[in-house]
Amino acid sequence: MRPPERGVFPLDHFGECKDGATKVLACLKDNKGDADPCRLLVRAYLECRMEHGLMAKEDLGGLGFDSGSDTEQKTPKPSAA
To answer: Which of 42, 45, 48, 77 has a Cα-to-Cα distance from 63 of 20 to 30 A?
Structure first.
């Protein structure tokens, strides 16, 4: 089986990456849609999808991730009151 082409995002029918997806969605909800604090979770989720053939293997740098800025989970920015 070959990986899907870019732009194709097949469903995870066997739930191989469900835990990662759940964590990403929870993080986004906790941070009111701000994806920046969730970068490590998103990275891990994309890596899981690549490992299980749910998306084409690709350098994550091409998806906006660089090794220098993704080494630590960022803390959410305090909201202005």
So the answer is: 77
